[in-house]
Design a protein that fits this description.
The chain is mainly alpha-helical and about 400 residues long. Helix content is about 85%, strand content about 0%. It is globular, with a radius of gyration of 20 Å. It has one domain. GO terms for molecular function: cadmium ion transmembrane transporter activity; manganese ion transmembrane transporter activity. It is found in: Membrane. It comes from Exobacillus caeni.
């Protein structure tokens, strides 16, 4: 049965927002404000380069998923038997570890808004996230949830940006002629936007909803670029808000940089706005991480596929329970954070190989410029991911 144009448009927008809000989590907010404080207006250049890389990764991965009509782990198994299981293990381990951080962020947001302890706030937020997957039309509810909270985050951040009165002219100039170029900042932003499970969130959502095949490529392409666009809009406005605060000579609180940006820019109202933005960013990332991580094991086990909703619920419940009982497991986050840096080059590398195998993509011809773009991203991210891994492991034993 063909989908109506209206339902198809809603699905494409929902997939874009699912990917974007999966990217916009507590780490996204902290990275953006911290790098803006250290690089000032030159951070605009970092954002520009990371957007270009993000689009290259997304275009390749979403198109190949659509054309093959398979999820990433099945494509990987077709490329090399067993590789899909390895990729799924990396995604699920990374998704679980970072979901604990996302739950922690949701707890912090409720703490700012209502004064409840982060643990209580995390438990309540976990219940909200679980509730989405208990309703009959869970996919549609998830799409709408991501869209509404995504719009709220962006609108509130725009308000704070205007109150901060950033030097927009300087930001534009330094975006194209930066004083310094920070390679590590670029890699961090790329990893935070399309690393780990994030880049597959929208692509797998479209497969689940039946939007696939060569005929769907124009729409899939638009949706993938829209996803990066939404995340980038949020990044740019948060960058400008922070720049406005930093340009006034004000210091950010190192224990919570994004909260101090909102508070310094708009007083107590700004602090409460931060609570809404942090909670929205965190809880949508919880939903995206759980949905995408479980989508990586659905086709590897008929039992998981049959009860996938309950596995998603269990994934969220486990993340919430670990945070409530143990707190943020820093050592696990360091290790899995390093591994997460390797997921994008592995996954994208597999996709580029798959794009040239007729048994996977049929008579589809992948554009040469996309392949070249993808190979450059794989090499750059593999190098930096390896560097992160080598430097991350010794910290576990300090």
């Amino acid at each position: 049965m063909k989908q109506s144009n209206e339902s198809k448009a809603s699905l494409l927008l929902g997939a874009a927002f699912l990917m974007a809000t999966s990217a916009i989590g507590p780490g996204f907010l902290t990275q953006t404000t911290t790098f803006t404080e250290t690089l000032a207006a030159s951070f605009g250049f970092v954002i520009l380069i990371s957007i270009i890389i993000d689009i290259g990764a997304q275009l390749n991965i979403w198109r190949i998923i659509a054309v093959s009509e398979k999820r990433a782990q099945d494509i990987a198994n077709d490329v090399l038997p067993g590789l899909g299981y390895f990729l799924a293990a990396l995604i699920v381990a990374g998704g679980l570890a970072f979901n604990i951080g996302n739950i922690a962020g949701a707890g912090l947001g409720t703490n700012v808004l209502f004064g409840v302890s982060p643990q209580v706030g995390a438990l309540l937020s976990g219940i909200v996230a679980i509730g989405i997957f208990l309703v009959k039309e869970a996919g549609k509810v998830m799409d709408r949830f991501a869209q509404i909270l995504g719009f709220i985050m962006i609108a509130l951040t725009i308000y704070v940006m205007f109150t901060a009165q950033p030097p927009v002219g300087e930001a534009v100039t330094k975006t194209f002629a930066p004083d310094t170029i920070d390679i590590f900042a670029i890699i961090t932003l790329v990893g935070g936007t399309v690393g780990g499970y994030i880049t597959f969130a929208g692509g797998h959502r479209l497969i689940d909803a039946g939007l696939k095949g060569k005929e769907a490529l124009p729409e899939v392409t638009r949706s993938s670029v829209s996803a990066i666009g939404i995340a980038s809009i949020m990044r740019i406005f948060l960058f400008l808000a922070t720049l406005g605060v930093v340009a006034q000579g004000l210091k950010l609180d190192p224990s919570n940089p994004p909260a101090s940006v909102f508070q310094l820019a708009a007083g107590n109202v700004g602090y409460k706005i931060f609570g809404v933005v942090m909670w929205s960013a965190a809880v949508t990332s919880v939903v995206g991480a759980a949905y995408t991580s479980v989508s990586f094991i659905r086709t590897l086990s008929s039992f998981v596929d049959k009860y996938h909703k309950w596995f998603i619920v269990g994934f969220i419940a486990l993340s919430t329970l670990v945070f409530a009982l143990v707190g943020k497991p820093v050592k696990i986050l360091i290790l899995v954070g390093s591994l997460n840096g390797l997921i994008l080059p592995i996954a994208l590398g597999v996709m580029l190989i798959a794009a040239n195998k007729a048994k996977i993509v049929g008579d589809y011809k992948h554009p040469l410029w996309m392949t070249i773009f993808g190979v450059i991203i794989v090499i750059a991210m593999a190098y930096m991911g390896g560097y992160s891994l080598i430097n991350g492991i010794p910290q576990l034993f300090k």
